[in-house]
Amino acid sequence: MTDSGSACGSGCSSCGVSGCGSRTEEPAAATEPQRTARSQVKHVIGVVSGKGGVGKSLVTSLLASEMRRRGHKVGILDADITGPSIPKAFGISARVSADSDGINPSTTESGIKVMSVNLMLPQDDMPVAWRGPVITGILKQFWEETNWEDLDYLFLDMPPGTSDVFLTIMQSFPLDGIVTVSAPQELVAMIVGKAVNLAHQMSVPVLGLVENMAFFKCDGCDKEHFIFGDPQGKFVANRYQIPAFATLPLDPRFARLCDQGKIEQYDVEGRLDEVIEQVQIAARLAEAKKAQEEDA
Ligand SMILES: Nc1ncnc2c1ncn2[C@@H]1O[C@H](COP(=O)(O)OP(=O)(O)OP(=O)(O)O)[C@@H](O)[C@H]1O
């Protein structure tokens, strides 16, 4: 059992929960090196949600677009293998190509590099009915063999929930931290707590919480309507000591721009600034730690 007893699957060799008194084997190395010579990814940030359909892919797309707008070199790895929605949101249909050096990702209009299983399938409505071990193998291959070139930030659109695929990503990708996405119902807030607790147990920093669909702004009266109930995000962020908090409105333009493949055009009007600041702080901390290790 773990300290809390909540995340134990008895698989000591594959479990990443730190501080477990029952561990008999150390987990696999936390970071696999990238094999392709054409990749230099500086920082990896996961975007997670305890529950499906709350807007995790949307938040991944908005964070990546905003970082790109600020001049960073950005990539997205669509790790939601069974429900990949990133290519559609950015209007990418060109299949990825491969050469002897590795897989070449597709590029969005503003220059974000994207790798997704949907960019390898002959048709984008072809289902992916693979079990966990196959999916985790593919994700590792995407990480190790994609020619990302130089990237400042790689965002991972993680699968929803806390499945075995989620656990593998938390263990085997060199994450600087995660951003978690929730919606304003109590149920969602409770499930966010599970993902956050798991991240804490695995020693992955939780950098920010984005409460999506927090309110709807009416054209007629310009008033904010809390149609899904009272916002929970601020309370959840305080409770789990998450340093940054942001809200996004329920906005039909999101769905429209995603459908049109033009999500890069959405202006978040500074709503994600606090979260982005924490991402940049985590990046600086990781760089300082790396420099220290190299000096030692
Ligand atoms: N704030 C919002 N306003 C309007 N539509 C939204 C909003 N957030 C998300 N949507 C729409 O809801 C749908 C689901 O969003 P999204 O794919 O980002 O969720 P998800 O959490 O990644 O889902 P899954 O867990 O299934 O991967 C999309 O069509 C998206 O355009």
Could you characterize what this model shows?
Binds and transfers iron-sulfur (Fe-S) clusters to target apoproteins. Can hydrolyze ATP. Belongs to the Mrp/NBP35 ATP-binding proteins family. Homodimer. The chain is an alpha/beta fold. It has one domain (40-295): Rossmann fold (3-Layer(aba) Sandwich), CATH 3.40.50.300. Helices cover 32% and strands 19% of the residues. The strands form 3 sheets. It has an 8-stranded mixed sheet, with helices on both faces. α3 packs parallel to α4 (164-172). Adenosine-5'-triphosphate binds at residues 49, 52-58, 80, 83, 85, 160, 212-213, 248, 250-251, 254-255, 258.
Which fold does the CATH topology refer to? Rossmann fold
- Outline, from the CA principal axes? globular
| DSSP strand tally | 12
Category from helices, strands and their pairing: alpha/beta
Number of domains: 1
Characterize the biggest β-sheet.
8 strands, mixed
Report mean pLDDT, rounded to a whole number.
82
Spatial arrangement of strands, main beta sheet:
5-6-2-7-1-8-9-12
Give the tags.
eight-stranded mixed sheet, 19% strand, Rossmann fold, 12 strands, 8 helices, globular, binds adenosine-5'-triphosphate, disordered N terminus, two-stranded antiparallel sheet, 296 residues
